[in-house]
Amino acid sequence: MQTSTLPASSTGSSAAMPPVDEKKLNAFVGKMVGDLGAAASGALVLLGDRLGLYAALAGQGPATSTQLAERTQCYERYVREWLACQAASGYVDYDSATETFSMNPEQAAVLADPNSPAAMVGGYFAMASIYIDEPQVETAFRTGRGIPWGDHHNCLFCGTERFFRPGYEANIVHHWLPALDGVIAKLERGAHVADVGCGWGASTFIMARAFPKSKFTGFDLHAESIEESNRKAQHAGLDNLKFAVASAKNFTGHEYDLVTVFDALHDMGDPVGVAAQICRHLKPDGTWMLVEPMAGDSLSANLNPVGRVFYAFSTMICTPCAMSQGLGVALGAQAGEARLRKVLEEAGFTRIRRAAETPFNMILEARP
After folding, report:
1. pLDDT at 8
2. How far apart are the first and last CA of the chain?
3. Regions in the chain scoring below 70 on pLDDT
4. pLDDT per residue over 303-324, tens digit each?
5. Cα(240)–Cα(195) distance, rounded to whole angstroms?
6. What is the per-residue pLDDT for 14?
7. Exposure string (b/e) for 154-165, b if CB count within 10 Å is 16 or more?
8. pLDDT tens digit sequence for 21-55
9. What is the DSSP letter of 266?
10. Three-state DSSP class for 338?
11. Would you say 291 and 319 are in contact if contact means Cβ atoms under 8 Å apart?
12. Is 224 within 8 Å of 243 (Cβ atoms)?
């Protein structure tokens, strides 16, 4: 096996570098080529969604580039290049004998059906904001300042709703709420519920539709998100649902039967203060359902594909958001159950258990 030594100038330091293992180097370069292709293809996923290319291919069957261009009213030469990248990515299938492209059921579930529990296109819209807002994050690295949620590009807000909503649709009513002690019976009779950090209100809408006798209020610090949620609520005609602008430490109302926080506590700069506020606003027999990204309690436990995604978004969005809120406390999107339990205990919760989980989320039940 041949080895070589990188020149000192390539490292930015005069310190000698150890010999390079050519086999390991080639393997790592291959990995980076795959990652570069994935990163570059993200923009093409957005195009496929916005132009209806995935929907037309999945809904109307195999097509040549000319046929797909006709279906979507796009220029064939662009569609041809887009399809080539999709096939190289494994996002669509290609039949060389007929020169047609198609989507199998699994590809369609992820890319063409926005209501599928496996839908992931929304994540690419959120990812677009990462690249757009990268200069802000660079400044945060250099200064220690944070970046408020509302200072990000709008792609983050719509992308977050689209990414999380399918999983919430599949799990909140059917799995997560039933895993809580006695909560379903309360909701069916008529409960008072606060959904804190609700964003565009995907979780709030799901619960309000399922339990018409209960009253739901969604709270979020981001005024534009609340405006969007109220527009959607008006269109939906739900009279048991409303939205209001409020921070998680200052939301209004008392004696809640249930408070929910979906994938948002780690974005908050004072998680113990938020948890204490929730504890004060619950009835003595009330419940807090805390939904957070799935994570182990050590860095080593999170060095996996899911952890990689969450750490990336945490670096660019979640940690800067928490750092913008004054106290400099930032749980990050991979806090882990032990750290979350410590937050809840410091805030006054005495009964805490993991009620449910998915590959992407852990669901904690907390009671005063």
Report:
1. 42
2. 64
3. 1-15
4. 999 999 999 999 999 999 999 9
5. 13
6. 53
7. ebbbbbbbbbbb
8. 999 999 999 999 999 999 999 999 999 999 999 99
9. G
10. helix
11. no
12. no
Q: Report the 3 state secondary structure along the chain.
A: CCEECCCHHHHCCCCCCCCEEHHHHHHHHHHHHHHHHHHHHHHHHHHHHHCCHHHHHHHHCCECHHHHHHHHCCCHHHHHHHHHHHHHHCCCEEECCCCEEECCHHHHHHHCCCCCCCCCHHHHHHHHHHHHCHHHHHHHHHHCCCCCHHHCCCHHHHHHHHHHHHHHHHHHHHHHHHHCCCHHHHHHHCCEEEEECCCCCHHHHHHHHHCCCCEEEEEECCHHHHHHHHHHHHHHCCCCEEEEECCCCCCCCCCEEEEEEECCHHHCCCHHHHHHHHHHHEEEEEEEEEEEECCCCCCHHHCCHHHHHHHHHHHHHHHHHHHCCCCCCCCCCCCCHHHHHHHHHHCCCCEEEEEEECCCEEEEEEEC
Which tokens sit at 238? 């739900």
Residue 137, burial from CB neighbour count under 10 angstroms (0-12, 13-18, 19+): middle
Q: Find the helix or strand (DSSP H, E) in which 257 lies.
A: strand 256-262
* Phi/psi at 327 (5° precision): -85, -15
Among 366, 362, 368, 367, smallest CA distance to 335 is for 362
Output the CA–CA distances (angstroms, integers) from residue 345 to 256, 260, 281, 351, in the order listed. Answer: 19, 17, 16, 9
Residues in the chain: 368
Q: What is the CA radius of gyration of the chain?
A: 23
Quote the pLDDT of residue 326. 76
**According to the model, what pLDDT value does residue 329 have?**
84
pLDDT of residue 283: 96
Q: What is the DSSP letter of 315?
A: I
